[in-house]
Amino acid sequence: MVRILRGKPVRRSRRDWAVDTSAFLLAAVFSAATSEPVVNHPDVTEAWLAADQLAGALACAALWLRRRWPVGVALAIVPVSAFSHFVAGPLEVALFTVAVHRRPRTVAWVGGLALAAMLATATVIRPDPVNPELDAFLGLVLIGGVIGWGLYVRSRRQLIASLWEKARRDTREAIAREMHDVLAHRLSLLSVHAGALEFRADTPPEEVRLAAGVIRQSAHQALEELREVIGVLRSDTGDGDRPQPTLADLPRLAEESRRAGTRVELEQRVEAPETLPQATGRTVYRVVQEGLTNARKHAPGSGARVTVAGAPGEGLTVEVRNRLGRSPAAPGQAAEGAVPGAGMGLTGLAERVALAGGRLEHGRTGGDFRLRAWLPWRA
Questions:
Q1: Domain boundary among 106, 130, 154
Q2: Is the model more confident about 287 or about 197?
Q3: What is the pLDDT of residues 271-312, one digit of tens each?
Q4: Domain named Signal transduction histidine kinase subgroup 3 dimerisation and phosphoacceptor: which ranges (predicted)?
């Protein structure tokens, strides 16, 4: 059997079969279990009782169509419920379905019609000879209860869907942030070496060979690091097969920038670095990487000073400072001949630091540009 979803046939899953069968049985059992007052009512004839039971059976069968036409099934059962007790169970299931799958406005007027039919039965058509007020109150509680339950299920499903959407959005942002950090650094190195070959036509063949080798190595490392990033994001545990950069990789990062022509001074004053969480060390690495990349792009030829200091319980401070030069490029703009950027590097870095519970500051300080981050480090 198939069901229709937004005009397209969809095969009913095992879960759908189980839910629909349970709803059918629950509706039938509820109607039968609460039928004693109707069966023993002095005004109910055998013909009326048989017609009532037939109406209940048809209403239970109509529940198999509730996924395709929830409002239509409910509206078909509501007027019959004013005269038939055995459709009470199917009516409750139909109202629950409308509350789950339709907007609150639709739920309100369908529920209002059901309440009107119930009140007409309890007060005019077939009032309880002993306590009609209690009968009307119980009907009100049942209808209000199933509608409230349905609205709760609807809101919970919407919450879960929004959480899934947020998780997908966060994943996309994490991919973009990691790819920017990796590729911007490597491409800036490629740009420096390629620019040297472009503007120095008299470069000796040996230096050309060395520069080409550096370009090839940087391109290879860019692909490797990009594969590491994707591996981490695909991993269920959040850890890739290859180790991610940490605090111990800062000397290698500084040496790469020196080979590209940037004078880098690295000073580390970190107590017990072996106790630093890997995630914090990776964030420090990305801060320094972004700072050195921006120095090459916006102030080529200037030196950069990197300072990392901290201790457990005090937090970790990382600072990248470089001279702006005579005609520095504005933030978000690359110097002439450099790799252009999207202007999102510092924005993504701020998000990364904030996720780690830290703070990021950047801007001009005298004749320097300073990028400074503080990260928590529990004792």
A1: 130
A2: 287
A3: 988 899 988 998 999 899 888 888 877 777 778 999 999 999
A4: 172-236
Evaluate if residue 328 carries a pLDDT over 90: no
- What is the C-alpha to C-alpha distance for residues 324 and 362, in angstroms, rounded to an integer? 13
> Does the pLDDT at position 240 exceed 50?
no
Cα separation, 366 vs 187, whole angstroms: 29
Q: What is the CA radius of gyration of the chain?
A: 35
Torsion of CA 183, 306, 315, 352, to 10 degrees: -20
8 A C-beta contact, residue 73 and residue 94: yes
Cβ neighbours for 12, distance < 8 A, ≥ 6 positions apart: 1, 2, 3, 20
Domain that residue 352 falls in: 165-375
> How many other C-beta atoms can be found within 10 angstroms of the C-beta atom of residue 222?
18
Number of independent structural domains in the chain: 2
- Let me know whether 266 and 344 are in one domain: yes
**Inter-axis angle of helices 205-234 and 132-199, to 10 degrees?**
170
Which of 254, 326, 261, 255 minimizes the C-alpha distance to 291?
Answer: 254
Q: Output the pLDDT for position 192.
A: 67
Residues in Cβ contact with 254 at an 8 Å cutoff, skipping those fewer than 6 apart: 264, 266, 288, 292, 306
Question: Do 170 and 240 have their domain in common?
Answer: yes
Task: Tokens for 257, please give them.
Answer: 């920038």
pTM of the model: 0.55
Longest dimension (CA), the chain: 114
* DSSP-assigned states of every residue in 293-305: HHHHHHSTT--EE
> For residues 210 and 379, what is the distance between their CA atoms, to the nearest angstrom?
46
Q: Which residues of 75-111 are buried (b: 16+ CB within 10 A; e: fewer)?
A: bbbbebbbbbbbbbbbbbbbbbbbbbbbeeeebeebb
Q: Mean pLDDT over residues 323-351, rounded?
A: 56
pLDDT in tens, 38-86: 777 667 778 888 888 899 999 999 999 998 999 999 999 999 988 888 8
